[in-house]
User: Fold these one by one.
Assistant:
Number 1:
Amino acid sequence: MLPTLTTLQRRKPHIYDLSWLCPQCNSSPETLDHLWTCPYILPEFSPFNTFKTLLLDLRTVCLGKFLSATPLKFLPDSFTVEFTAMDCWDCDPPSNSCLRLARGLIPMSLTSFLGTYFSSSTICSIFDTPLHDFHFDLYVQIWLCRSVFFNHWESAQGITNKMKSSTIGPSPISHPFSQISPAILTPFLATAFLDSWTSWVFSYIIHGGSWISHLDFWRRLTVQPLLRISF
Ligand SMILES: [Zn+2]
């Protein structure tokens, strides 16, 4: 289970105020499902847009594999249309089935449709690698970026590593930003990120032979607060 803000609010309500919403969009509680569907303020940096792209890539890859696999019976011409119309690929708005895929579960509707044409072992082996890649990409392209952002957002809230590692219950939190909403705090984050930028680039992941876009990530963290403050 990824430690989303709602999970942290449940575990340590004395540190994570129950009224705090997703630090990236400030519009919904940051649940596991929200991680992938967060609208964010800039469409090009939106986790939701990334999620949609990755989900449709998964659909394309899986479809190609099924079309070239050996079926139990002849595949009708309608197979491609029916496969691509399954509700698990419906992500705008996100269906429960597509959120199940994000949790690593293959929806029943999908397996029962595919079970008409393929054995269970074929279905599982075809989904295995693409689903793994899908989760890896979600983790790298959404979760890691969000976590770096979140770490600095926590600092801006006055939340220290010492407080987080403490097993002691509620204690008074006193810091200069405690009465300021997360939305107003975000400009402070831009400079904080500059300090950690280089270490982040050298610490995080090369996937598919190319770096995650440094420039995009930098812009996401620096441009977004300036726009947000105009709200
Ligand atoms: Zn959000």
Note: The two ends are 33 Å apart (CA to CA).
Number 2:
Amino acid sequence: MSIELWKEVFSNVRENVDAYLSSEEIRSTYRDPNTSIEFVVDDLCHSVNAFAGRVAINRYRIRICAGLAAYLRESAVETIESGWIFKEQSSSDPVRRSRLIDYLMYIWLDFVCFHEWSHVICGHHSVGGSGEQWSEFEVQRDEKGKLPAEVNQRLEVEADAYAAKFTLARFSTIWQGLAHEIYGTAVPEMVLRDYLMSLLLLFRAFEKIDGKDCAERSHPEPIDRAFVVHSFMMGEFSGIPGLPNLGKKEVESIFSRVLLDFYLLHFGLSAETLLPRILQSATFMASVDDMLKKLKMDQYRVAVRR
Ligand SMILES: [Zn+2]
């Protein structure tokens, strides 16, 4: 991608996030009206990463590194070529293909921004520059000063759950325009299915850069993340105005089909191993609240929990 195009991507992302973060509705959820959240795309940092942290009293910064944007771009190209998504959309036409890549990358970056923002409002704060994350609350660290994986992974689940809600709300405002641009005639089922699948594929892309060893992993396994996003979106779907007008049954069946596709095709799980694995995800998710209580996370939240 040319430098000009990158600049455009960065400024689009920044504008989108700025507009969202400064909206009255969002600001009214902050406990302290003086809270400010700054968003930067760090075009000099080539690490595949994003950070959220507190820089001063009431001031927070979300930083998306250029390396992450580049990685997502590469993964989007690979994903479109693989035909795992937009199945009805031919990607042999280069213009069309690049539009699909852009769309996928847009959804992914949007999710990443919301995920980082969720860390901030949920109180998962790091203080100062690089180095330790989440250093404001009391928790036993290992000899390297790192948070135990069991804590970190549960904070990640909370951020994913919030991000699922926020991105769904955002999707409600863009899906019709997108449907027209990407699909020609809008078929709500198709748009929703591809949208959900795109998020699940994002977790798969992230797995490649996270450790394979569970104890080392900073994030939960993609299967668990998929489960969290899936459950939260299912729960929120009827409460968000402007989403494709589908009945509860239809939404449920679309969501289940996507999840099944994702597990069977992308993880090669057999139908028999799938059920116990899903139960495992549910158990993991159910343990999140206890951990948040143990960390007394409510004390650190920037926004009122709703
Ligand atoms: Zn995170």
Note: Residues 149-183 form the longest helix (35 residues).
